[in-house]
Amino acid sequence: MEEDGIRYRRPKQRQAKVLMRDVARMAGVSTQTVSRYFRTPDTITAENRERISRAVAETGYFPNPAASSLSANRTNLVAVIVPTIDHSIFSEIVAGLTSVTEAANQMLLIAHNGYSVEKEEQLVERFLAYNVSGIALVGQLHSDRTREMLQRSGTPTVELLECDAPPIDMAVGLSNFTASYEITKGLIDRGRCNIGFISAPTDGNDRVRQRLKGYSAALSDAGLPILHQHIAHGQFAIENGARAFDEMYRRSPGIDAIVSNDILGLGVQLQCRRMNLSVPADVAITGFDNLELSSILDTRLTTIKMDTRAMGVAAGQKLLARQVLSDIDDPVTRFPYEILWRETTP
């Protein structure tokens, strides 16, 4: 086509979308039979399966799983919200969840909230709008609105890595309070009495809050003071652990032990070398998580071992069970942990 000497190409006509009724018409069956062909093929005759198969191949029809799920008031989607995707602990949880959801032909949606309860609330609201069949959250610290939305929706919900508080629905994890209490008490039993605590920030992180409470309780039960200058927080980075210990030791040179996590604890170990402090003779150090890094140095880090991948598997199994049951016998699963006493402690 030409206009004023300019040639235009006529746009191609968009091909009409093939619908289920088109397949049914071509196969000579009802739309309900076509629907059963995709959902429960064993419930229709072999002859009808063959007819529908030929019609699907000829038309190029592909079912919309989201539409069919919404019409059935459910989806094959499960969501997990983690604080960050930068930490291997959360990667292990996701791997465990994925192994369960994939086997059940469900898709796992992954989001991170940056340790923000406000961001978590927004993500939960979005996932509920997608009518997900289950939601996994890390920790038990949530906004009131998040709790209300999940409880009112009836969506199967599992909280991970902490299980001391009553759950929204279900929980899989450990007592961070007890684990921290026991490792701090272990240091006290080994003769340490000026023990510092270096961890990630407590904002949006109930696991750290519980560990700080466990550390404080162990000191209190032993008659030792809980000193503000012996407590520090830093983001997950080895150098942040080194910096926090340097500042703490300069304020309180009598520090003889540090309770921490693996990443920050390795930073403490590094800073001790820089300051010519012997580990564990001068300063004992403990971590939490049993990351691979904790055992690669000559002086291996004492730490707390927990199976986070298995926790992810257990969480996925609980979500699947709750999709078909209104209630389950064991809503809370407490996982064991192990203190690995290594060379950074006497």
Which descriptors would you attach to this protein?
six-stranded parallel sheet; 346 residues; 44% helix; 434 Repressor (Amino-terminal Domain); single chain; Rossmann fold; alpha/beta; four-stranded parallel sheet; Peripla_BP/Lac1_sug-bd_dom
Task: Describe the 3D structure.
The chain has 346 residues and is an alpha/beta fold. It has three domains: 20-70, lambda repressor-like DNA-binding domains (434 Repressor (Amino-terminal Domain), Orthogonal Bundle), CATH 1.10.260.40; 77-175 and 308-338, Response regulator (Rossmann fold), CATH 3.40.50; 176-305, Rossmann fold. The chain contains twelve helices and 14 strands. It has helices at 20-27, 31-39, 46-59, 65-71, 88-103, 117-129, 144-153, 176-189, 206-221, 238-251, 262-274, 308-324, and strands spanning 2-3, 6-7, 77-82, 107-112, 134-138, 157-160, 170-173, 195-199, 231-233, 257-259, 284-286, 303-305, 332-334, 338-340. A six-stranded parallel β-sheet has the order 4-3-5-6-7-13, sandwiched between helices. Strands 9-8-10-11 form a four-stranded parallel β-sheet, sandwiched between helices. A two-stranded antiparallel ribbon has the order 1-2. Helix 1 crosses helix 3, helix 8 runs parallel beside helix 9 (206-221) and helix 10 (238-251) packs across helix 11. The radius of gyration is 28 Å and the shape is elongated. One of its GO terms (molecular function) is transcription cis-regulatory region binding. It comes from Sulfitobacter alexandrii.
